Amino acid sequence: MSGDLAAESWSFTEASFQKFTISNFCSIQREIRESIESPTFPSGARDKNRRTLKIHSNGMDEESEGYLSVYLTLLSCPRRPVWTKFQFWINDSEGEVTKGMKHPRFFRFLENQQWSFRKFILRDFFLAQEPWLLEDNELSLRCKVTVVQDSFGFSNETMTPGIQVPRCTLSDELGELWENSFFTDCFLMVAGQEFHDHKAILAACSPVFRTMFEHDMEDSRRNRTEIQDLEPQGFRAMMGFIYNGKAPDLHSMADVLLAAADKYGLEHLRVMFKDALCKDLSVETAAHTLVLADLQSTGQLKTQALDFITSHASEVSEISCWKKMVGSYPHLLAEAYSSLASARCSLLEPPPKCLQQS
């Protein structure tokens, strides 16, 4: 398969043609030792990157001396890298393509990087064929630039073509099995409601369900299990996570599902809740988060909540949730008092009266 055909199998490619005309070329190339540069240009209607063509009339280095060297430079690119394939050619005085070169593969361009044909055409040959190659003493260098507009994150500079792999839909398909009760083999009773489930999926995700199904209990033999610590809404949210990884409402359901995640060994869900509660710490939520962390024995979350309360003691102590916590969980008041005292010990200041129990 050619490089052009291979590019079509990628996400999207865009090609453009550029013509770089240099008047009075023979005189210029005899006098100028530096490169001759074209105006900047994009590679297509959707391409925001800027490029330029350059010609060295007597090679770019010692190895290419005696040749015309041509190269393409990427001057700017908002999104890098840019994968580009290019080819150069010139037309003779009759308009026929001659002395063309192209690369069949794509190159990885970074900003201010260039790729070239160092030995594009022999200088002596070019001068000998001047009337045939240069019409009216003009050199018309043509260039085709093809850009991959949506590459797949290729890291190999040779960029061999590939097949676009569709998104894995396994989680969606497992979710449909549960939503439609397809091929279920057990029943879970939640607050009088019956839910149809799959033992293998529940056992794979939860060590508690695995143990429950392994034991030779009457409920297990009848494939019916009573769930006594969840309401239907919380159970549905937990099943949504088990079957397709769908995150429940981490804020409104934290009270219910943090405990469920802990009981059923859903560690990933448990960490998601802890992370959400840490990020959501505020004067209004700190006391409630401290209570949750204490009930679920999540030491890291508890430390974060205590640190926040220590830093905002005056504001937190005015919130009704704090006052309820003080009455129901006096040991947490003692822990908050200790944390605040430790933070202030270097200043030799007593804790403020606002944290004292009334």
Automatic annotation (TrEMBL):
Residues 15-145 form the MATH domain. InterPro entries: BTB/POZ_dom, MATH/TRAF_dom, SKP1/BTB/POZ_sf, TRAF-like. Pfam families: BTB, MATH_2. It comes from the Eukaryota. Residues 184-246 form the BTB domain. Signal peptide: none annotated. Belongs to the Tdpoz family. This is Speckle-type POZ protein-like. It comes from Mesocricetus auratus (Golden hamster).
